[in-house]
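Q: I'm teaching a short session on how sequence maps to structure, and I want students to see two examples side by side rather than one. Could you give me a first protein with its sequence written out and its structure tokens following it? Keep the formatting plain so it prints cleanly on a handout.
A: Of course. Example one:
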Amino acid sequence: MIVPNPHLQHIASYTPGASPDQIKAEFGLDHVEKLASNENPRGSSAAALEAAREALSSQAHLYADGGMRLRQRLAEHHNVSIESISVHNGSDAIIHQIMRVFLLPGETALSSHGTFVSFGLAVRGVAAEPQFVPLTAGYRFDVQALVAAVTDRTKVIYIANPNNPTGTYITHDELVWLMDNVPSSTLVVLDEAYVEYARHLAPDTYPDTLSMPYQNLLCLRTFSKAYGLAALRIGYAIGHPDVVQWLIRTKLPFDPNGPGCAAAVAALDDQDFVHESVELNGKGLALLLSTLHECGYVTSSSIANFVMVDLGDAFTAAAFHKHLLLQGFIARPLAGFGLPTCVRISTGTQEQNVHLADVLRAYAAETVEAPSPSLIQ
């Protein structure tokens, strides 16, 4: 019998949210809105789609260039050297590659409970040990707890900023303090998949990571969220060339795909689309947060394109999630993220957000006794 390596035999796989077709079939619904995966409700830039179509029609028979043109364009966009950038088939792939490159079996990688699940999967996939510290009472990364948990076996620290699924963030001063207090031999990975939604924050509030001088700081970004190219799987890493070169040297040939790279280059040149997407999200986020608080629900102070609702116990969270499904809204239960009392809801179009707000108010009128202060800082 063929069996996998022992450390993989009990590893859990990533479980994506249910699709609209699944929910329609299960509950007999005619119309379902998916607000579970933090996708861009505006879709994609028209210029990016046209670039992908052109690349597919003219280059589908050719191997991709390994993202060289995209790396050049990203270097110009971020005002960094091309040697500082590596591009990949999604930032998920980078997380897994980081662990393959920088972790040995038995070493540890450190993060927080209630963060992106790919971290733990990637660490366990190389027979290393993921370690977690608790979130703060405000659902934020606790940088002091992270530093206190570092040992001589800690080779990687992973921080999602803004965090998924809470939408909270660590500040500039917190990141500087952390970087100044961890060994220079420990790689700090800052996953900034939702960084575009933090543009309204001042640089002395949200960290300007690309201007920081730390050689052991590696930033991950993606075209899946504000850029609206989730299906094309394009992510990238920015860091010191001495670190980034190992991602370039060890990635698969011809990674990432050609149409995705072409779309990403065009998307970078269509910043109006990104700005409009962020503006739409800001309005939707404000509506959902204000509605949830009006109804007495507890949420995190999210700045991303989703809201996390803490229902207090797993049973109430399951009932809340089930009710949204029956009303035609797919949200994301967070037991798999280590937050069984919580549900994450992505922002949608203005029409979706208004409809969802009505559904939330009606449900709260039936189930929530009295509103109370509900934004946990």
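Q: Perfect. Now a second example for contrast.
A: Example two:
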Amino acid sequence: MTHTEALAARFSALEYEDLPPSVVQKLEACLLYGLTMSATAPAQPILDAAVLAVCQTPGNALLLVDGQRRNAADAAYANAFRMCARGQNDTFQDIYAHPGCIVIPVVLALGQERGISGREMFSAMAAGYEALACVAAGYASAVVQRRFRATSVFGVIAATAAAARVLRLDADHTAHALALATQQAAGTMQCWTEGSPEWRLQVATASRAGIVCATLAAHGYTAARQSLEGDSGLYRTFAGMAPRDATPLSWQTPTVIFKPLPGCLINQAPLYMLLALRRQHGLDAAQVDHVDVVLSSKNEAYPGINRHGPFETPTGAIMSCPFMLAVGLRDGTLRMSDFDLRYAEDDIHALSQSIRVYADDQLPDWGATVSVHLKDGRTVQDTMTDPSRFSFTWDETDTLLATMAAQWPWPDGADRHARLRAAVSALDTSRHLDDLLNILVA
């Protein structure tokens, strides 16, 4: 059995009853999180108009917030573009990938066209999340080192697994859909180096391609059986690695973590610790001489992390550790608007010069040490070896997201958040997705 055939055998017949409670609970939190990120996405008129221009096919699937309807592929594209706009995504930390912003738009859009139930939605989400964890395990690090983006390279396979499950493809057709998806794998990280915005298109393209690949396979289109592990397959091409045996299913969805603040995941731990030190010691920026941040060698070298502003676009600020920590040091928090308003000429960039980022081979990926050196000679410090504290429960996720209600684009944001929370909680008993989605349009 080839790798795509093994994946198809696992996920094509996946039912809600097969999902452990811990998987369902995390998927509920991921759905609430992803939809909230969509509702609070910043408006960027030029980019938004450009995306809408390539999403003009009529259909029955809603564009979130916008309220227009398109076919499933276009709706997935536009909604994925929106869902990742804050740079605040759920994450499989071990594979450097964000499942929700790719998988959820697929299931919502295609699910509306097919009239699926809430339970079917969770089954399809699980297929996407778990397929991503399986296909990327052991390869993602090498892919990232070769300057490809793991989220889009492997995310298209996750999107296809989810779409195939919504379409109820059998194992044979699902295997061909997954093989077709390898031909849509793409995405370099030059955008992080230059601060350009195509990272959002990487997510949108992967989401739409998942629907396209599943639909092609449903109509009989076939693909190479060894598209992952073959001599010219995805693993050798993108990772430069000889393939391993197919990864066994071990339910990785419960390990998904959430970014508590907007911006790159690599910067979440140091910012979280800096904000905690600021509160604990009653610090403000005027008391600080400089801040030393130590990351793993791989994370410090990730494109965009160790850049200082001013930047050409908000993307540069979203990736910059010095920028994110400078805002946190001065303001005691970080808002999405900080990226949009302060990326260019702002006094925050002078403060960011006091934030210095170093690498340490002994520090694990996603860990960090933050040392705040005060002008009176004292130093306060904290270390986080992994971001597992960001693997929030449902209640913790809801508490975080409730604070964002004022950022919803309607005056009744708090009420809509409460309704969304209730709708997600009851989704396993819902026969359709309409009640859930109607909360997210005017």
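Q: What should students look for in example two?
A: Point them to this: The chain has two domains: 3-256+393-438, 265-387. Also worth mentioning: The chain has 21 helices and eight strands.
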